[in-house]
Specification:
Blueprint: H1 24-47, H2 49-54, H3 61-90, H4 96-107, H5 117-128, H6 133-163, H7 169-182, H8 185-198, H9 210-237, H10 246-262, H11 272-281, H12 290-308, H13 311-315
Length: about 325
């Protein structure tokens, strides 16, 4: 394995601000959005407190532990996917525990406004390890792009097929074909660069072949099913048996997660994700429980995310030389 060259002091990639300050209007937009959505969630819980308090909650720790394990396994698969992309793009074989540490540390950047700090966290941390900034940046952006596209595909196709009015099969087939077309490297590169231009970031170049990108798309789709499956297990673990199918619940979770992620001005999609989940799942679980479940899912997934970061305590102060 060729070790990465020692890191050199360099300027931040062009087009990427280093300051953490945000314009006043963005800060106020974030505060107002979180406050408004949070108000309606809390009001929903308070107004239906009798239903919530009298519901026969039943904790099943086997389901809850399985849910947590599935989230952690999903994290590991996502790390391996990003590691694979970086290896194909930058020709660097990154040790797994280095990828694990960088992925988890940079992932906490999603709790900052703008959604750019996860990507930039990967760049900064791996530059300190001696990796070139350019391939790290491309791998991080491609990782997020494929995750978003696969989540959208799952949400639109599954929810459109039955949850919201039975969208005609030809329409769904057309959406599937369009998604496959978007995966064609020149089109994917154009779409990503269009988004980067909107947020005033430098363009990237995608050098992976179509077959590789399509294969990655399928695996990313599987990670969404696993992540949504963890939410489904969480429901079972607290004594809720949803009336919708497994895939419907998975797609509802994926859709709400993406809505929160794409709310660029809200750190971690706070309140936005919960509001979307509460709205989408309300017809599939007992009346009055949608808002509490949405809030509980945030707490549960945050706890499992923090538990996934626990191995970082053992890595502290040591370098991975695998």
């Amino acid at each position: 394995m060729t070790s990465p060259r020692p890191a050199r002091t360099a300027e931040p990639p062009k087009g990427h601000e280093t300051g953490t300050g945000a314009p006043a209007w963005k800060r106020w937009l974030t505060i107002i959005t979180v406050a408004v959505v949070g108000y309606f969630l809390v009001r929903s819980i308070v107004s239906q407190w009798d239903t919530v308090s009298h519901y026969q909650w039943s904790l099943r720790w086997d389901w809850l532990l399985l849910s947590a394990a599935l989230v952690w396994i999903d994290f590991v698969v996502l790390i391996l996917l990003w590691r694979f992309i970086l290896k194909r793009i930058g020709q660097h074989t990154m040790p797994f525990w280095t990828a694990y540490r960088v992925w988890f540390l940079s992932n906490f950047g999603k709790y900052l406004p703008g959604k750019v700090w996860t990507v930039m966290g990967m760049v900064v941390l791996l530059k300190a390890e001696g990796y070139s900034a350019a391939p790290v940046l491309v791998s991080a952006i491609l990782n997020q792009a494929l995750s978003i596209l696969s989540g959208l595909a799952l949400s639109v196709i599954v929810l459109g097929a039955g949850t919201f009015g039975n969208i005609p099969v030809p329409v769904l087939a057309g959406i599937a074909v369009l998604l496959l077309a978007i995966l064609y490297p020149p089109l994917l590169q154009w779409g990503i660069n269009l988004g980067l231009r909107i947020v005033r970031r430098d363009p990237i170049t995608i050098s992976l072949p179509f077959a590789t990108i399509a294969g990655l798309f399928v695996v990313y789709l599987a990670t969404w099913i696993a992540y949504g499956g963890a939410f489904w297990l969480l429901l079972l673990g607290i004594g809720i048996h949803p009336s919708g199918s497994f895939l419907q619940i998975v797609a509802i979770f994926a859709a709400s997660y993406l809505i929160g992620f794409l709310a660029l001005f809200v750190p971690g999609g706070l309140a936005v994700r919960e509001g979307a989940l509460s709205f989408l799942i309300t017809n599939w679980i007992p009346a009055g429980l949608a808002a509490p479940v949405a809030l509980l899912s945030r707490i549960w997934l945050t706890v499992t995310e923090l538990l996934g970061a626990v191995p970082l305590l053992w890595m502290r102060g040591s370098r991975d030389t695998t």
